[in-house]
Amino acid sequence: MRYHVGSGNEPPNRKRAPLCFVSHSWKDEGHQFAKSLCDELRSYSIEPWLDEQQIPIGADLRHTYRYVILERCEVFMAIVCPAWRQSVACQEELTVAAERREREGLQIVPVLRQDVVSFPDPIQGLLHLRLRDLNHADAIRRLASSLHCAAKTFRMARQLQEGTWIERQLAVKALGMLGNRLTISILARCLQEDSDPITRYWAAISIGKIDTNEGCRTLIEALKTEQNAFVREGIKEVIARVCKDPEGGAPTDQE
Asked: Fewest CB within a 10 Å sphere: which of 67, 88, 214, 243?
């Protein structure tokens, strides 16, 4: 028995397979490729969300896509090829996914089926997997592993936003250990807004472990408003350790 999103028949205490939205073009045999890839991924405990299999007859397509991307999926996979790059619908899906990535840490995994002239901004610079056909078992295993990792990252980001203070502390530490620069915005929001000072402290430590220019700017801005002495000391220690000449130096307690 298969369990579909929104069906209401998920068994209790069952470890959920990551729900993966599959953005793909129907042209140039793209849909058949996506269907076959989804069949392969199910054997690795991935639950792909493919339009023809999950959308009821008569449903509003655009509304359904947005709902699944914004509310239900845990990872967004883009099967990239020239037809996908030129598809208005596929680019709208990617834009919606990028919005949720910024807000909630949704991960985007690009799979390059055919070479394209350029990548759209939301996936520019992301490591992609080349998958010309489905005969490469090692590549499919690597993709499945990446999808599981992406879903785990997303779940931790959600836990950081919605969990108890203990769960938030565990999540913020785990995100730092993963070192995913795409979670900087989530950690930054935690550093600025979380009510628990220990969680804010570990958010600063985790941002330092990821070590990006954006992270340094985040730390410097947070230090301007942070009132807790313990958290301030943690932020200053991270800035001194990882930020190279941070915009003329970090603010001091007197500033």
From this structure: 88
Q: How does pLDDT run across 237-253, given as a tens digit for each residue?
A: 999 999 876 554 444 44
Cut 0.85: pTM above it = no
Q: Give yes or no: residues 122 and 176 share one domain.
A: no
Could you say which of 133, 153, 173 is where a domain stops?
A: 153
Which residues form the domain of 174?
A: 163-248
What tens digit of pLDDT does each residue of 8-61 get? 344 333 467 899 999 999 988 899 999 999 999 999 999 999 876 666 666 677
Find residue 125's DSSP bridge partners.
none
| Residue 81 contacts residue 114 (beta carbons within 8 Å) | yes
Contact 25, 83 (CB under 8 A): yes
Answer yes or no: do 32 and 107 share one domain: yes
